[in-house]
Amino acid sequence: MTVGTKTKREKLAEREDAIVSAATEAFLEKGMSAAKMAEIAASAGVAEGTLYLYFKNKEALFAAVVARHWESLTEGATAAIAKADSPDDQLEALARYTLRRILADWKLFELSFVLHYPVKEDGVGSDRRGYVRIFDQIVARGIDRGTFAPEADPRLVRDLFFGTIEYAVRSILQTGKNPKLEPVVIMLLTAVRAVLKPGQGQARTPDHAERIEAAVTRLEKLAER
Amino acid sequence: MTVGTKTKREKLAEREDAIVSAATEAFLEKGMSAAKMAEIAASAGVAEGTLYLYFKNKEALFAAVVARHWESLTEGATAAIAKADSPDDQLEALARYTLRRILADWKLFELSFVLHYPVKEDGVGSDRRGYVRIFDQIVARGIDRGTFAPEADPRLVRDLFFGTIEYAVRSILQTGKNPKLEPVVIMLLTAVRAVLKPGQGQARTPDHAERIEAAVTRLEKLAER
DNA sequence: CGCGGCGAATGAGCAACCCTCATTATGACT
DNA sequence: AGTCATAATGAGGGTTGCTCATTCGCCGCG
């Protein structure tokens, strides 16, 4: 095999890539159910049956499209936070990047929920794994450094972080206005810091009312049984 | 028309209800694409063609299922916050209710995103409208009363609120553990308050009396039963 | 009581589409 | 050139959403 010639492996990979690309386009334009396998095949320059050599069925092809998107997202985010140094700055960079990126590729992002059927560990949702890990690492580092409170549960804060971003993007797209990301970033960071740094800045001296309420809540639970 | 006899209108409404109920069951069990119109028809006790007299197509039927779910959610939330008095407590009640309810009906909730295709004002997403309005009203009242800072943008905080809840539920379901809602509520309220009461530190003193009174009132109500 | 009229309901049939599989093409290695 | 394993093909099968000509059920009127 000479240089310039494609090996068998490369050819197969190339083909798979062409299929996924064609599928991405089709799914973006028409959505999961309206996109036709015949069209995708034609657009990728292969026969319909060939699709099924690379992907078990339409759903698997769809999953591949979504997976590729998440990989790209994870890659970009890793690069985006590399410039920042402190966990605080990294969090901000991640917020900004995620917001911008999800806004840009919203349709693709939304598609990734269509599959979402079985809430399984290794299901489609596992595509996010890599992305979410970035956040977890930042928080872990912050706790190590003493920037964040060690009693903070990273998984909870993670939900705050990504949930807010997704919903904010949805809102932005619905109002249709020119997107204003900065207010979202500011609010998000305010919220995240309030949770990650309790007792700081907000100087939360033990709050009498909170403690009494908590006591009452305990009583209420007791009474319910 | 006598009592006990069904009028024509009532019969039609009843039939529509039966169809939607059958459809809900089918969609829950099998998902949007795997659920078959023939099954739904049989389960509802009508012919297949009849479905199309009530709903234009499968998607419209699906949308009706989702809409009904959101109506029920909105109803329940309205009742849940009615007991609370201060905006702070209402927010807490809404958080707790939403969390519990979405957790309970997660499949149905998730289904409501399958449709989500066109990000339109009047699309399927408009089902949430009523629900979201509840939140907005609470915040508006809080701003009126001076409990919340007037410069807060309710729409942003809304995304924080519901986004966090949805993602938290997703996490809870993925870990599969016994659901611990309380930590989520606490974090959520911490975050929301940090945003709604900027720079307020612990100067929440004026609130203490009110909150203690409310807590005691709850106990009193409890004791009455 | 019979009858005509009208909206509601039916279900066989059509068209669309995913997927299979028997057949053919490809190209690496003797 | 011949052989063989692997990749690719696309016509056909089976399923399913949806339509439409037909039938049903109810009501008022003569």
UniProtKB/TrEMBL annotation, chains A, B:
**Top-rank taxon, per record:** Bacteria
Q: In this protein, which residues make up the domain named HTH tetR-type?
A: 13-73
Under InterPro entries, the record lists:
Homeodomain-like_sf (IPR009057), HTH-type_TetR-like_transc_reg (IPR050109), HTH_TetR (IPR001647), Tet_transcr_reg_TetR-rel_C_sf (IPR036271), Tscrpt_reg_YsiA_C (IPR013570)
What organism, scientifically named, is this protein from? Parvularcula mediterranea
Q: Which residues bind DNA?
A: 36-55
State whether keyword Nucleotide-binding applies: no
Entry keywords, A to Z: DNA-binding, Transcription, Transcription regulation
State the taxonomy lineage.
Answer: Bacteria, Pseudomonadati, Pseudomonadota, Alphaproteobacteria, Parvularculales
Q: Which Pfam families match?
A: TetR_C_4, TetR_N
Q: Any idea what this protein is called?
A: TetR/AcrR family transcriptional regulator
